[in-house]
Design a protein that fits this description.
This protein is α/β, with parallel strands linked by helices. The chain has a domain of 187 residues: Vaccinia Virus protein VP39 (Rossmann fold), CATH 3.40.50. Helices cover 36% and strands 27% of the residues. The strands form three sheets. An eight-stranded mixed sheet has the order 1-4-3-2-5-6-13-12, with helices on both faces. A three-stranded antiparallel sheet has the order 7-8-11. Strand 5, helix 8 and strand 6 form a beta-alpha-beta unit. Bound molecules: S-adenosylmethionine.
Length: 324
Amino acid sequence: MDDRFSLRREVDRGPRFAAAVQSGLGAVRKTIPPQYFYDELGSSLFGAICNLPEYYLTRSEEEILIKRGDEIAAALGPVDRLVELGSGSARKTRHLLDRLAPGGLEYVPIDVDVALLQQVGRDLLHEYRKLSVAAAVCDFRRPSRVLRDIVEKGSRTAVLFLGSTIGNLDRGETVAMLRDLRSVLAAGDPLLVGADLRKSKAILEPAYNDILGVTAAFNLNLLQRINRELGGHFDLRAFAHRAFYDEEAGRIEMHLVSLRDQSVRIDDLATAIDFHEGETIHTENSWKYGDDDIEAMGRESGFDLVRRWTDAAGWFGEFLLVAQ
Ligand SMILES: C[S@@+](CC[C@H](N)C(=O)[O-])C[C@H]1O[C@@H](n2cnc3c(N)ncnc32)[C@H](O)[C@@H]1O
């Protein structure tokens, strides 16, 4: 590939996935962390979710980045480097790259899906002639592991965390992640966080229960992935997707529900997992935020909130924080 592209690998996916499945399905309350949704099929299904009529998140955030892109880019720049946590397809990033990249920029996408990082890197180098891409396969919960070697002293770095991916982390995990990120930034470096705001159940629940069943497929793909990569024997017809809004907590919970009593072998782990009817595997939380939540977590982690933008409906927020 182009010498403007480099790829670092901080995580070794195979053994980590096996360990996460072993400990998550061995627990009393079964769980699998959401980063394991994103194998090749999972990332494609997420791309499809972004186009669903019920999944307003992508459209609302895109509306902000298109309408307020000049203001946001002016508030972020000028920068030497644009880091993006959980960059995915970088579909919305392009609205900012159009404004930030003409003079040349190092783009640092961080994700767990290596194939997507390579594809997106190739596409962006083609689209933006003065861009260089330093991609990293890394768990964004500890971004300093890769950024320590990338961020140069005396340079200015902006960080993006879009798509309300922050909402997949609990409060403590968010603060730990932001502190770790802060440790490699210089005072004054900006961080733009896209976060989904609290709203009625009638809008939230359909976004995670689309009529075409794409979100259900995205969720069930986790079991398919265990079958593919770890020699699992899950019968996908014996599990169902469930997503609901816990209004008091302010989060969507996503689960896979066992439809019968069953025992499922996973050959590579030399184990069998017992499920009783109605038992669930908790696969994701998506936290929804009130007015002050992002500001409070930022302050606790060494960032000040300086601006925020919302879409016309007030459903989604773009928060600009600056390293203290
Ligand atoms: C909800 S998608 C958002 C993608 C894109 N930023 C957007 O706004 O559409 C989350 C992305 O983060 C990546 N991801 C999830 N958990 C991760 C983790 N712990 N470390 C690194 N990447 C992760 C996924 O592979 C996926 O591309």
